[in-house]
């Protein structure tokens, strides 16, 4: 039988921090809360990433809420990818009740109901800050990965971007990209120039690229690509000393995996490219929480998985921590899991043989402890209890500790529609990014060029007709023009653009 005094002295030593820290709860020994043992996490190591895992209903989301609140108290902003849509209540103060009073009486800590500064965000047109990016900002390499193009098609995409740069054709949205691809394969467009100076595009490759773009559009990407593009530095706001909790509502992720992959790659790339190196700053600049991460890893492309693995390895030097919230540690790829310095493990249920395998795998990832039978206790942790191991200020893993977690100080429920409207209505960021800007870009410029080419061909046709006697039975000038190749192209373009105009009226998009 382990000694309680030894437990207290060892855990106090390992979970005491000389610098700034956050407190997640109190240690437990033999099923009882030990008030002498604070489970503190040094801010210095929070950018070493982490995992919050546990079966459905064991309290993962509330732990995430506590974590985000504690970071906010320290002036550290965060972004929470809210898949279930149940996190928005952090914007309102919680309410005291018997359960919370009992929990805090056991911990010996004080409960103070309060709200936290929040920005609601969206990539699919809901109420909130509209997150957008331009095609140019993605670049040919990243866009090719999103579209899942092969090497040949990726090289074509690089040529297309090079052509757009050389000719001053801004690629803002997907319509610009599609228009440029069509222009570069049109005999009356830029086909000859492209072939002479850059290389030809085969019809088969063009078709494959366009199909990939259409597939991305069908998942709602037309709302994501455009201007004004989102500045990731707007994620770093603080108000009255508290870090802003940015909440991205992505409840439809399962039906839009490619769109979500697009956003994730854009976010990681933009943060890595624009945030300066932090070095040993003593606390993170920003923390990203990916809730229901198993949905992301199950639905995401191989490209996104590889990019996440790379970002987890590299992005901590920018002062950014990434935390995955999922059901079992096995949901996270091994290469990513090995990079996570902090683990918060709620209860797992061993109903099947596969469940028991996952339990054994989870226990193997924890430091060996003499104070708990981890394999048995992990199946019997109560709601609001979790195993925790982290990194101390020297980067050494702390002992595994059964933790009695504190409760959120904000509301443990969602905002009403009226509250969402009020919150977004007074947001300066919502106003900043609300209206899309449709500048003259490749689509408009190329459409004008093609129309001018057709109009320039008309006088030549008239001059040709005036030199010859026109019998009564011969076609009119109008018919001659319409029958010409340029005229046919013009009529095709007119019909196509007319259809787009009508569809634009129906879908609300104007050009």
From TrEMBL:
Name of the molecule in the record: Helicase HerA-like C-terminal domain-containing protein
Pfam families: HerA_C (PF05872)
SUPFAM superfamilies: P-loop containing nucleoside triphosphate hydrolases (SSF52540)
InterPro entries: HerA_C (IPR033186), P-loop_NTPase (IPR027417), T4SS_component (IPR051162)
Residue stretches making up the Helicase HerA-like C-terminal domain: 35-468
